[in-house]
Design a protein that fits this description.
Elements: H1 4-22, H2 33-46, E1 52-55, E2 60-64, E3 67-70, E4 82-85, E5 98-100, H3 103-112
Antiparallel strand pairs: 1-2, 1-5, 2-3, 3-4
Helix pairs in contact: 1-2, 2-3
Length: about 130
Amino acid sequence: MLTLKMIAKQTRKWARDKARQEKSFPPDLNGMCGVATARLFEDLLAAGFSPEIAINSEHCFVICNGQVVDVTATQFGYRPVEVRPLMRSQESFWEICSTFRSSEELAEHQKINGWPEEQIATPRKLRGCIERQ
């Protein structure tokens, strides 16, 4: 069985490879949090987890099993994959303002709020997700 951290590492690799291939985001994945978070959300769902997408005015990440799971934390100087208890996540970029139960809800929120097109988590950008069981 895949663990939360194992799936997050796979998603980070996918995000890093996608950013490198498309030359759309810098190596620290700054600006890719929405797309990478939606991908992580879908991968966790496919593995049987019950994640939520969390967002604030500057960042997106996943909440799952009482943990913050962030695969783009390098943009803030953290490790490539951060999995930490929600209660210990005191950084402002891990503050939760809204949560979503689907990547489609996130994409709609991003569109309504004027996110740059390359940062919106559209289905086309999530291709290659682990198939849901």
